[in-house]
């Protein structure tokens, strides 16, 4: 399978490259000439391989977005990157961000889950998705690495990695301040000041505030998806000697808002007149309803607050023959969530509330010794340690049965009570490359990882949930509720050795071709309480990936064509499943899928036909499918499986042939920008479009879980003054006002009796003024 898939893809890439190459490959520097640096596509320095390189000389499917490009495109949150970064998309799980690269994601955003896409800031792991958007200010660049990074960035990176690199202090005094106003009462500010203190010490202070009203009319509650965030960062650069250098960064982020907008609509059920064979009268019709975009009702009382403090840094010493580098950091995050769970309005489920509290901190340490990157033989060796501690997390499903909102007397419906949750990861890694012939390099690397997790406490649930819905207990003189308490004392250890092997050929200064094999691994975990009442212990995820690519510059560096083809053999994915327990209470569990297969091709093109015009085009095709996937089911899911003829003798639903969540077949990103001379300055106009074909947000692939194909177009107009001391930008994002579904919950749950969805931002517009000094 590997050889056939890759051979076909390799042939296509080779033919395309050869068709473009004759008479066009130039043996010259990739960078534009010093005489006219406006001609040609500029390279961006990257450190994806933990050494300095450029996008075009790094044999990885990587997108690097410079700080200037991020600013010009109005990117001030991680989710905005999907407008310009190829094969990247985002989903939501209530107030958590789900990152998807090439259709690979993890939808377990709980306190015991791990991401499938590794996110780091200045080399320090960000384990939790809360607060990711708030760090997106004053950046040097963002690197998006597609595919598993099993050796150098191996922690849970089965889908890929996103590296956020903040701006560092420079040798000159400088600064900027920006103010932005826009729709939904947007008022954002940002800025920085760079101060060289002396010859060996420099400082940079940056800040950002973001404020806007909610995007959705949630009456009687306050409009959701609002923002009220403040962030500040202090960075020191130290160069006390020619051999020793270091960076120290402290960051503080505070956010307070009314939480996500959750659309809920009472389910439609089959009647005797329309029930299909195999299902029952009263079963849910699993088709997507017509959504009333004018109103997203949420009870009053929803609130989401977080506070993040972090310190991180790096230190490097040059021994001539080798360089020793340390990267590490500490991050503490306090989160308090009191968010609606989406029960249908007008029922005794409308005040179900998710009450969540985290007080967690994490430490990251990495020590790396590397050779001289300019020598034919280059090597790296390192060790890695990560620990996250979450003492006494609270994660409850509560109800306010006699209230008009999410306040007053509370009844605990289901409690995920833990005395502590601890996750640790240790790894040792190494990678070497050798130039066997001029331009031809072989690479090999390995990483050994040991992970461990502890989860101690108890699950508490109402013993007769159906009875509770019929007649509330434990409130205002009613009888006390009867609870079932299940002690939980879980621990798990997992280990894995992952590999990297590659052959890279720099056939000319402007042409790089590569083929590589990588394996990836994501630690196992705890899946919750299954239908049989037993705790689920998840096996690790593993992925084997083959990729072939070609990176090329033509026409004096004005045309860039990067091509890639990939094949993934993915096993034991952690899949979220929403179930109704034997007591009738709702619960979210995780299970291991058997095997899935991903294969695809990508073309990433940039063209600068004139110094004033720039064209970007990315086209990606991904075919992702579960090859083996059995899941135990009950209730309507079981009847659905039997009606399809996919229920085995043990009561498992065979989901082979379904698509993994959020894995569209097609993704297209196109952009066109032009510079115009105006009043001695420059007016830049840019239009950019993001298209995704149909995908599903749950593994069952019901129509009710479908995310229809959509197109999202942004328009940006930026004027820069003649002396570049100020800049004014106007923008409209999502011109079509597309309703883009980012989350869909299981409609068959009798606990909610509703179709439940979340959405990306609607059309927004505004203007930003930046003053530089």
Automatic annotation (TrEMBL):
* Taxonomic source organism: Novosphingobium endophyticum
The way this protein sits in the membrane is described as:
Multi-pass membrane protein
* PANTHER family on file: FERRICHROME IRON RECEPTOR-RELATED (PTHR32552), TONB-DEPENDENT OUTER MEMBRANE RECEPTOR (PTHR32552:SF81)
For this protein, the record's InterPro entries field holds:
Beta-barrel_TonB, Beta-barrel_TonB_sf, Plug_dom, TonB-dep_rcpt-like
Which compartments is it annotated to reside in?
Cell outer membrane
Q: Quote the cellular component terms of the Gene Ontology held in the record.
A: cell outer membrane
Quote the gene name from the UniProt entry.
fyuA
Domain TonB-dependent receptor plug: where?
Answer: 55-161
Q: Which family does it belong to?
A: Belongs to the TonB-dependent receptor family.
Q: What is its main location?
A: membrane
Protein name stated in the entry: TonB-dependent receptor
Single GO biological process annotation from the record: iron ion transport
In this record, what's one Pfam family?
Plug
User: Superkingdom of this entry's organism?
Assistant: Bacteria
Check the UniProt entry and state the signal peptide residues, or none.
1-27
- Keywords, sorted A to Z: Cell outer membrane, Ion transport, Iron, Iron transport, Membrane, Receptor, Signal, TonB box, Transmembrane, Transmembrane beta strand, Transport
Could you tell me which residue ranges the TonB-dependent receptor-like beta-barrel domain spans?
298-735
């Amino acid at each position: 399978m590997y050889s056939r898939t890759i051979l076909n893809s390799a042939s296509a890439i080779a033919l395309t490259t050869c068709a473009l190459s004759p008479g066009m490959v130039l043996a010259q520097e990739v960078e534009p000439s010093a005489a006219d640096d406006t001609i040609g596509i500029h390279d961006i320095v990257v450190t994806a391989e933990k050494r300095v390189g450029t996008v075009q000389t790094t044999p990885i499917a990587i997108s690097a977005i410079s700080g200037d490009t991020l600013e010009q495109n109005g990117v001030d949150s991680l989710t905005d990157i999907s407008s310009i970064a190829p094969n990247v998309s985002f989903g939501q799980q209530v107030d958590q961000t789900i990152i998807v690269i090439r259709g690979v994601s993890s939808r377990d955003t709980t306190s015991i889950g791990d991401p499938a896409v590794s996110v780091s800031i200045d080399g320090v792991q960000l384990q939790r998705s809360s607060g990711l958007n708030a760090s997106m200010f004053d950046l040097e660049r963002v690197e998006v690495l597609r595919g598993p990074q099993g050796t150098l960035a191996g922690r849970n990176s089965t889908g890929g990695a996103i590296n956020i690199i903040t701006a560092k202090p420079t040798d000159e005094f400088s600064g900027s301040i920006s103010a932005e106003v826009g729709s939904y009462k947007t008022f954002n500010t940002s800025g920085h000041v760079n101060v060289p203190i002396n010859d060996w010490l420099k400082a940079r202070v940056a800040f950002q505030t973001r404020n806007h009203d909610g995007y959705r009319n949630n009456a009687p509650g306050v409009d959701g998806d609002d923002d009220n965030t403040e962030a500040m960062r202090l960075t020191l650069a130290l160069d006390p000697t020619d051999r020793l250098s270091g960076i120290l960064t402290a960051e503080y982020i505070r956010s307070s808002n009314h939480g996500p907008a959750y659309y809920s609509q009472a389910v439609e059920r089959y009647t005797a007149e329309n029930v299909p064979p195999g299902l029952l009268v009263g079963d849910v019709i699993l088709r997507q309803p017509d959504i009333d975009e004018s109103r997203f009702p949420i009870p009053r009382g929803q609130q989401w607050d977080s506070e993040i403090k972090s310190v991180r840094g790096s230190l490097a010493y040059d021994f001539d023959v080798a360089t020793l580098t340390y990267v590490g950091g500490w991050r503490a995050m306090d989160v308090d969530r009191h968010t609606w769970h989406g029960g249908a309005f007008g029922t005794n489920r409308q005040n179900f509330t998710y009450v969540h509290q985290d007080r967690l901190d994490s430490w990251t340490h990495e020590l790396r010794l590397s050779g001289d990157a300019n020598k034919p033989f280059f090597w790296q060796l390192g060790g890695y340690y990560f620990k996250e501690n979450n003492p006494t997390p609270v994660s409850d499903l509560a109800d306010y049965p006699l209230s008009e909102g999410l306040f007053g007397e509370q009844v605990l419906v289901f409690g995920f009570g833990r005395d502590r949750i601890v996750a640790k990861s240790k790894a040792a890694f190494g990678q070497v490359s050798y130039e066997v012939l001029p331009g031809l390099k072989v690479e090999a690397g390995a990483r050994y990882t040991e992970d461990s997790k502890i989860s101690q406490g108890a699950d508490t649930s109402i013993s007769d949930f159906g009875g509770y819905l019929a007649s509330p207990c434990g409130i205002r003189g009613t009888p006390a509720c009867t609870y079932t308490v299940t002690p939980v004392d879980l621990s798990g250890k997992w280990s894995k050795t992952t590999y990297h092997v590659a052959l890279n050929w720099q056939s000319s200064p402007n042409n790089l071709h590569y083929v590589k094999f990588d394996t990836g691994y994501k630690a196992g975990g705890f899946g919750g309480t299954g239908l049989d009442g037993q705790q689920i212990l998840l096996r690790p995820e593993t992925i084997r990936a083959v990729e072939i690519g070609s990176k090329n510059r033509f026409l004096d560096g004005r045309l860039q064509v990067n091509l890639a083809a990939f094949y993934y053999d993915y096993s034991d994915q952690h899949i979220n499943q929403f179930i109704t327990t034997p007591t009738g209470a709702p619960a979210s569990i995780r299970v291991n899928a058997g095997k899935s297969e991903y294969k695809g091709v990508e073309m990433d093109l940039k063209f600068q036909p004139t110094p004033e015009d720039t064209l970007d085009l990315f086209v990606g095709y991904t075919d992702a499918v579960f090859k083996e996937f059995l899941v135990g089911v009950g209730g309507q899911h079981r009847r659905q499986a039997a009606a399809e003829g996919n229920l085995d003798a043990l009561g498992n639903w065979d989901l082979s042939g379904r698509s993994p969540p959020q894995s569209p077949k097609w993704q297209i990103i196109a952009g066109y920008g032009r510079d115009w001379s105006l009043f001695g300055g420059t007016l830049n106009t840019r239009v950019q479009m993001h298209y995704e074909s149909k995908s599903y947000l749950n593994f069952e692939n019901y129509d009710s879980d479908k995310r229809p194909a959509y197109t999202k177009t942004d328009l940006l107009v930026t004027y820069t003054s003649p002396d570049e001391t100020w800049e004014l930008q106007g923008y409209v994002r999502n011109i079509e006002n597309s309703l883009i579904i980012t989350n869909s919950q299981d409609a068959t749950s009798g606990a909610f009796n509703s179709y439940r969805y979340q959405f990306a931002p609607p059309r927004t517009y505004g203007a930003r003024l930046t003053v530089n000094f």
